[in-house]
Amino acid sequence: MSGSEPKVSCVFVCHDEAGRVLLARRSSGARDEPGTWDCGAGALEFGETFEAAVARKVHEEYGTRPLRIDMIGVRNVLRGDPVHSHWVAVVFAVRVEPGEVELGEPHKFDAWEWFAPDALPAPLHSQCGASLALFAARPA
Question: How far is CA 95 from CA 1, 20, 30, 71, 90, in A?
Answer without folding.
Answer: 29, 10, 24, 12, 16
